[in-house]
UniProtKB/TrEMBL annotation:
It comes from Pannonibacter anstelovis. Residues 477-570, 606-691 form the 3-hydroxyacyl-CoA dehydrogenase C-terminal domain. InterPro entries: 3-OHacyl-CoA_DH_NAD-bd, 3HC_DH_C, 6-PGluconate_DH-like_C_sf, ClpP/crotonase-like_dom_sf, Enoyl-CoA_hydra/iso, NAD(P)-bd_dom_sf. This is 3-hydroxyacyl-CoA dehydrogenase NAD-binding domain-containing protein. It catalyses: a (3S)-3-hydroxyacyl-CoA + NAD(+) = a 3-oxoacyl-CoA + NADH + H(+). Pathway: Lipid metabolism; fatty acid beta-oxidation. Keywords: Fatty acid metabolism, Isomerase, Lipid degradation, Lipid metabolism, Lyase, Multifunctional enzyme, NAD, Oxidoreductase, Peroxisome. It is found in: Peroxisome. Its main location: other. The lineage of its organism: Bacteria, Pseudomonadati, Pseudomonadota, Alphaproteobacteria, Hyphomicrobiales. Residues 295-471 form the 3-hydroxyacyl-CoA dehydrogenase NAD binding domain. The keyword Lipid metabolism applies.
Amino acid sequence: MTESPVAYESAGETGYISVDNPPVNSLSAAVRKGLVEAIDAFAADTTAKVAVLYCKGRTFIAGADISEFGKPMVEPYLPDVISRIENCAKPVIAVLHGTVLGGGLEVALGAHGRLAMPGTRVGLPEVTLGLMPGAGGSVRLPRLAGFAAAVDLITSGRQAGADEAVALGIIDGIPDAADPRAAGEAEARRWIAERRSPRQISGLPAPRPEEDEIKAARARVERSARGQIAPVRAFETLVAALGMPFTEAMAFERSAFLDLMQTPQRAALIHAFFAERKAVQQEGLKGIQPRAIAKVGIIGGGTMGQGIAAAVLNAGLDVTLIEQDEEAAARAAAGLAKMQQGAVKRGKLSPEACDQMLRDKFRTAVDYAALAEADLVIEAVFENMDVKQEVFRKLDAVCRPGAVLATNTSYLDVNAIAAVTSRPADVIGLHFFSPANIMRLLEIVVADKTAPEVTATAFALAKALGKTGVRSGVCDGFIGNRMMNTYRTAADHMVLDGASPYDIDRALVRFGFAMGPYQVGDLAGLDIGYAARQRKAASRDPRERVPVFADRLVEAGRLGRKTGRGYYIYDDETPQGRPDPELEALLTEVRAGQPGNAATFSDEEIVARYMAAMVNEGAKILEEGIAARPLDIDVVLLHGYGFPRWRGGPMHWADAEGLGAIAQNIARFAETDDFFWKVSPLLARLAAEGRTFETLNTGEGAS
């Protein structure tokens, strides 16, 4: 018989309910059953007057058991477990520590008193999975913390620290004790001495916000939700439940929760959740030890180099940054200091930690010899093959044997960079995304001769930096930029054929992107795409359709936000940009003489073409082995390119849309352009056989 992860211990007038279900004490069926049995044992204990509910290990109950996601629910159901705790005739005190989220916080809200150890964080993040609280969170929390705080926490899914939780009334205090059990013991003695009785949140009155307050809150939620249904449904449920008796409100909340369980958005967000965890799991690296990394060199002190330096310093590593002269080195050091001071202002870094790392763990140099003892060197210089190869020749000459040599190239051939060294096995691509100290994605580009332990080191580094590492093979643009080039080309073709860039941006923002492709271009700088087109011009197929309008903008000095003008106008009146009425004349001139330039495109057609190009290129990337799994592509697009998370990623979206429909669309588009629109053989095969990209994630459709 399997031992229960929940134990009850009687110790005089205090009973102890302990949960021990590593690694995060998730609410498995066994834990739920064990909690009911422990509460029953406490109720039957004639000696114990107060029970302390606490967890062993690194955290209090951190939420649901993810292994149960997508499976039929098993009794006892969580609302019933929490009701059993709340309705106990004797007081139950929950002592929280670690990360107390979702069902874990709902369990704590069922207790009659709550303490939180220093450093505890609480939250109801169900909306990040396309859900809402389903075990009383949206019914109990408003009664305890008020309407505004409950709406904020539930519809944003954000976490609150212990101090904020005390201020909001969610927990009663932060004990000065060595551990949760000791804190609970002291609190239990106080309750016993004061002869306290159970204090049920269900017995507290629900807040009654004014109609104007509700209206304003609804507008904020709808604005921030940007197409997600869970935050809006959670808000509507919370508001409606305020006017119901407690029992009726609980049933109403549960019904809304179960409705959301059936939505495509919930399936997409769960897919994204698991994809992120699977992306860092590399079957081929099992048992391979990464190399130790303590000292890191960075070549280049521009914006990217500074961002990489900040990320590495924040991970506790030592950094030496190389610039070409003392003046450039001083600029880089000043830029990094400003970047880190920004992190201090945002509360991400303490002033003391900032000062210490800049003083003791960071230095600049102008001589590559300063990297002689580095464990890892990351090159972040200008995106030019000759320049990068020269850097690697120098590194090959000065770096110690076993040092990992990484290039931060966005497009260039990592094999060609490795080839100029005497140690290609030590060379790997680490494609950071800007700003590198904030963006979570790290494309790990494995060259043909990269040693497995070097790849393992790259994944270990990504974890240390708090980033999601995704493996990519070598090709122009790797996974993300290669796909971006393709779907951006589809957008450019629509503009050449008569669509307005503003219509395209609007349609894709409605689809769920934070920005459309032309807004993104202005933000990044139009000169970047121009340089890439110039680099490829000599090898361009004559059948390619060139976005002449984009080149004209750059040649006119309109580079986007940094010059105040690109596709949009940026000034004090509209710092986020407004359409430029002069653009239409340029487009009319460029389109002259081109076939099909009188076409009009509905929002649906814009999305269909943009997404078909994205999915089709993803299928080609899979077929070539550049990405190992569709989920890797989804993670790259989610974290590096603003793909709407609630759609799960492009390959998951394609499965939901239907691969057959997408293949048919591509065939229709090919009727007028059979050079650009060629359906991937993999996409065609999966569609014909009624399979999905998900079967490639699970190994079912690999043949």
